[in-house]
Amino acid sequence: MSSHPIAFHAAANKVAAVAAANEVWPVADVAALFALPFNDLLWRAQQVHREHFDANEIELATLLSIKTGGCPEDCGYCPQAARYDTGVTAQKMLPVEEVVLAAQAAKDAGATRFCMGAAWRSPKDRDLDAVEEMVKAVKALGMETCATLGMLQEAQAERLKDAGLDFYNHNLDTAPEFYGDVITTRDYQDRLDTLGHVRHAGLKVCCGGIVGMGESRMQRAGLIAQLANLNPYPESVPVNHLVAVEGTPLADAEALDPLEFVRTIAVARITMPKARVRLSAGRRQLGEGVQALCYLAGANSIFYGDKLLVTGNPEVEDDQALLARLGMRGKKALS
User: Confidence band (pLDDT; 50, 70, 90) for 5?
Assistant: First the structure.
């Protein structure tokens, strides 16, 4: 007789106990979730998901690059780094009016959250003047707002909060022990410090990572543990599948097993039950079948629109058609 059901129920009971006690997630416990039989893992994730969300509702978020290229960082996955020859040229910040038009188009297509990204190591105070205008204008459309602008000081986070920003995105990217293999121009603690400033200012946190960069399963577990052990854990958790861009150091990274990506989504759902777990970069490479499994595993948010900063994304019509075939619907806008 197989021991899988017994092992699964033991693991499920431990998961419930950890959640109930609000304890930290040791990396070994997160790795044990990854190691569950695939069907058992998805069954547990689906249970957790349905405890907190409508399982057939998807949050639609749109991400716009408001300042593209020219970043001084050396993130090995990023085509916007100035030191890499990827065909991305540095551009000035978009005018407020153009950002508002893009936000209105996103809203008309069904998006409820509008995210604005700038390729900065960290913004200068004068840069925030225009960003504040953008936030106020997008909020006036009745949309949730999010920004990802690099590292923030506490006073800058407070300025964005005062402007009406809802979420700030700052990803951890990967586990601490793998981080130096991907990025050398800032430390892991720099990222944690920014998240602390964002929390202190009263902003909601959008924070996730990238998988498929050559990390091990244990390192993927390490990333999820880092996120789940933030106090509180992020309200939004974007999980990116590496888009290998020619000219970046990770251009030739070995492709991740798609089922391992689904496992990552499921483990994120179990360890951060109330978070919006978002399918972010790399959805086009995953294909519709894997995306459907991700929704079953607890993903309930996607970046929506034909471009994600500077990389491709499924067309709006394709997403709408897939969601319709799955009997799923977009989250309603805030009243």
Answer: very low
C-alpha 281/C-alpha 252 separation (Å) is 17
The span from the CA of 301 to the CA of 58, in Å, is 5
Q: CA 159, 191, 229: angle at the middle one, nearest 5?
A: 105
Active-site residue set:
71, 75, 78, 115, 146, 206, 278
pLDDT tens sequence across 228-262: 999 999 999 999 999 888 888 888 889 999 999 99
Question: What's the token pair of residue 318?
Answer: 């394709």
The model's pLDDT over 96-135, given as tens digits with 9 standing for 90+, comes to 999 999 999 999 988 999 999 988 888 999 999 999 999 9
Tell me phi and psi for residue 94, to 5 degrees.
Answer: -65, 150
Neighbour count for residue 200 (Cβ, 10 Å):
12
Closest-CA residue to 158 (of 189, 127, 114, 199): 199
Structure token pair of residue 25: 């997630």
Whole-number Å distance between alpha carbons of 11 and 65: 42
Provide the whole-model pTM. 0.89
- 97's CB contacts (< 8 A; 6+ apart) are none
Euclidean distance between CA atoms 315 and 321, whole angstroms: 10
CA distance 130 to 134: 6
